[in-house]
Design a protein that fits this description.
Blueprint: H1 3-9, H2 14-19, H3 21-33, H4 38-50, H5 55-70, H6 82-91, H7 101-121, H8 123-141
Helix pairs in contact: 1-8, 4-5, 4-7, 6-7
GO molecular function: GTPase activator activity
Keywords: GTPase activation, Lipoprotein, Membrane, Palmitate, Phosphoprotein, Signal transduction inhibitor
Organism: Columbina picui (Picui ground-dove)
């Protein structure tokens, strides 16, 4: 699969975008222009957190993620409701790889319903699709 095909697949679903390293990078760049990259950063931190195998690392990573993204007035606070914030806080006492699942799901839904559609309409993504489409056409006409 070449990159132009990949760019066009990001339109198909938010999952396609998140599965693509380039997609995540492009989406992150877009979110920075809106000053709302903390949701994606939190989601990525949770994905990384789930891969943590060491119990001691799990607890310290959980606290770091909570302090950076979840607690009230966190430096990069994600937009989740009070109830989810409380559930997540309680989950920290016995940190498991699932302790952020609910908060992560909420931020994912928020990105999918809010930021993702704006990303697809953004000038940067429109430019990428134009380039991808023209590369696809020029490739076909050269074969």
């Amino acid at each position: 699969r070449d990159s132009s095909q990949e760019v066009l697949e990001w339109r198909e679903s938010f999952d396609q975008l998140l599965k693509s390293k380039n997609g995540v990078t492009a989406f992150h760049t877009f979110l920075k222009t809106e000053f709302s990259e903390e949701n994606l950063d939190f989601w990525l931190a949770c994905e990384d957190f789930k891969k943590t195998r060491s119990k001691t690392k799990l607890a310290s990573k959980a606290n770091r993620i909570f302090e950076e993204f979840v607690q009230n007035e966190a430096p990069r606070e994600v937009n989740i409701d009070h109830e989810t914030r409380e559930i997540t806080r309680k989950n920290l006492s016995g940190a498991t790889s699932a302790c952020f699942n609910e908060a992560q799901a909420k931020t994912r839904t928020l990105m999918e319903k809010d930021s993702y559609p704006r990303f697809l309409k953004s000038a940067s993504y429109q430019d990428m699709t134009k380039q991808a489409t023209s590369r696809g056409i020029s490739k076909r006409s050269h074969t």
